[in-house]
Design a protein that fits this description.
Blueprint: H1 7-18, H2 28-40, E1 44-47, E2 53-57, E3 61-71, E4 76-82, E5 88-93, E6 105-109, E7 115-122, E8 143-147, H3 154-159, E9 167-170, E10 175-176, E11 181-184, H4 187-205, E12 212-219, E13 236-242, E14 245-246, E15 258-264, E16 267-268, H5 271-283, E17 288-292, H6 299-305, E18 311-319, E19 326-329, H7 330-345
Parallel strand pairs: 3-12, 3-13, 13-18, 14-18, 15-17
Antiparallel strand pairs: 1-2, 2-12, 4-5, 4-9, 6-7, 6-9, 7-8, 10-11, 11-19, 15-16, 15-18
Bound molecules: zinc ion.
């Protein structure tokens, strides 16, 4: 198996990434950080109007290209309403359930650049007052932000600079255990983003010669459905989304292997390209699971929907409790890194 994987560096980078707030629509800071890393590695890149970065490394064959994408945008929320009590109602960004963020600490990012601290709670949280604290619906009506400021009226909240339309980010609560687990929000898809950056670093450091020109597309609008569906160079033949594997009842995916997706809600991924990934894993002793994700779409399927004529595939680390307080294991990152390297170095199968 590959020697590329640098555990300590990858985990450090991942922690940095999850700690930069980046709900979809509010990704300037993280993309600036991504650009600075690419600058340090002296990789050339372009930026789309939507804010995505497309880094390119030339290969022996410059006529047929590959593209790999991971996304830096995450779930989050926006201030929907300032309540009479001075607390905030939220509007969701991305797809999750309110119970997945109940009790989470958050920041409200005001227009002037100030960050106000708060906690996401049910209105009926106190069991000493609300009989239905446990059973009340976790809904947009009942979920609110309690600000860590002395406010009891809407005007006082506005005086802090908070307005409707301000972005709200959730604390990642990053933790690495001695047993090799990484627990954090936003492992989707910052785990894959860290792996892509590490792959670029290793290509540069080891002066690896790629068989085909390869683009690394850092997208910033995946959670809302249109991250990597534009600015795809015309020469791209193969398009790989590197994104999380879905774990749960009936799923083969787990936290210890790389998950290769045969089909999701958008339909089957390209059969031959998917087989190519499976063959590479088998040849190189990379532990993998082939799976179907029932409620899932990726930037690769978004590109297909947008009309791009590419062969598309999807693989990535298995993420437990996705779109909630997520977890994966270092083994899953290791096997994903190995498959990434094996893929970019493999000859392109074109018929
Ligand atoms: Zn994702």
């Amino acid at each position: 198996m590959s020697s590329v994987f640098k555990e300590k560096e990858t985990i450090q980078l991942l922690q940095k990434l999850v700690e930069i707030p980046s709900p979809s629509g509010y990704t300037k800071e993280i993309m600036k950080f991504m650009a600075s890393i690419l600058d340090d590695m002296q990789v050339t890149y372009t930026q789309s109007n939507k804010g995505a970065l497309i880094a390119t490394i030339e290969g022996k064959d410059t006529s047929k290209h590959r593209l790999l994408t991971a996304h830096t945008d995450t779930l989050g929320a926006m201030v929907k309403e300032i309540k009479g009590s001075g607390r905030l109602k939220l509007s969701m960004i991305g797809g999750f359930n309110w119970n997945a963020v109940e009790g989470e600490y958050c920041h409200i990012h005001t227009a002037s650049g100030k960050k106000v601290r708060g906690t996401i709670l049910m209105h009926q949280t106190t069991v000493h007052v609300y009989k239905n604290a446990g059973s009340a619906e976790r809904s947009v009506e009942n979920i609110e932000v309690r600000l860590d400021e002395k406010v009891t009226k809407a005007d006082e909240t506005r005086a802090l600079g908070i307005e409707v339309g301000d972005f709200v980010s959730f604390d990642p609560r990053f933790e690495q255990t001695d047993s090799g687990f990484i627990k954090s929000r936003h492992l989707d898809d910052k785990a894959s983003t860290a792996l892509l950056l590490q792959l670029i670093a290793s290509i540069k450091e080891n002066d690896l010669k790629l068989p085909n020109t390869t683009h690394f597309y850092i997208s910033n609008n995946e959670e809302i459905g249109y991250g990597g569906n534009s600015n795809i160079p015309a020469e791209v033949v193969e398009y790989i989304a590197v994104d999380m594997g879905a774990i749960g009842d009936g799923q083969t995916s787990d936290e210890y292997t790389v998950s290769i997706c045969a089909k999701d809600s958008s339909g089957p991924y390209h059969y031959d390209l998917t087989r190519h990934l499976v063959d590479l894993a088998k040849q190189q002793g990379i532990e993998y699971k082939l799976d179907i994700y029932p409620y899932y779409g990726s930037d690769a399927s978004a590109a297909i929907r947008a009309g791009f004529d590419v062969k598309h595939a999807l693989f990535g680390p298995g993420i437990e409790a996705s779109h909630a307080y997520e977890r994966t294991h270092i083994d899953s990152l290791k096997h994903t890194a190995a498959l990434l390297e094996a893929y970019v170095l493999s000859p392109m199968e074109t018929e």
